[in-house]
Amino acid sequence: MTELIKDNVGIILQARMGSSRLPGKVLLPFGNTTLLGWIISRIKNLPWKLVVATSSETRDDAIAEYCAEQGVECFRGSEQDVLDRYYQCAKTFAFEHAVRLTADNPFPDTDELARLIRYHIEGRYDYSHNIGKLPVGVGAEIFSMKELETSWKDGQKPHHREHVNEYILEQSESFKIGYLEPLADRQSPALAFTIDTDADYQRIHACATKIEHTPITTEDLINQCTSSA
């Protein structure tokens, strides 16, 4: 099972420079690197292939160049049709199961991610996630390629194209959807570690710098940010 998981799963990290509320946020300083570099450092040593999926817009050349410097694969596709970008990336790299992470969430929980991948494959789910009880921005989701292709073909409304999981959630009776309960000490849904605005960036960066060891765990974040509130 371990080898099956390793060979068939890919992690797609979506990143772009064109955020409306905080342009260029993925290359802002974070720790001793950038926000994108910070996330890459957390997940690049996992046993699954990592690909950064950005757009073909000129402004995202900086992301492609940064990935080349970091030795990370980069796929480029549509900026606005996120579902197409994600699907084409998964297809290009022949992933049978594709994990979705985004570059505005600096603290993906790698232990919970490994649990989720195992849960998804062993349960033969079409789509699985652990979002809801973890702090916002810490969770992940994983799609089986066949069902992702169904979404890509049939999900033609604008909101289906903007959000990779929208069609599956709307047509939930047609898919086998799995939810993995996070471990109890990592549950804190009132906390948010998603960077959408400059205020988010300043708050989350300040919180992270107070934790003097790496890797920073979800429990560390909950304890530090709760005590700092």
Q: Your description of this structure?
A:
The protein is of the alpha/beta class. The chain is built from 10 helices and 9 strands. The strands form 2 sheets. A 7-stranded mixed β-sheet has the order 5-4-1-6-8-7-9. Strands 2-3 form a two-stranded antiparallel ribbon. α4 packs antiparallel against α6. The mean pLDDT is 94.
Q: Give the overall shape, derived from the CA principal axes.
A: globular
Approximate strand percentage: 15-25%
Rg over C-alpha atoms, rounded to the nearest angstrom: 17 Å
| Poorly predicted tracts of residues | none
Quick structural overview:
The chain is of the alpha/beta class and 229 residues long. The protein contains ten helices and nine strands.
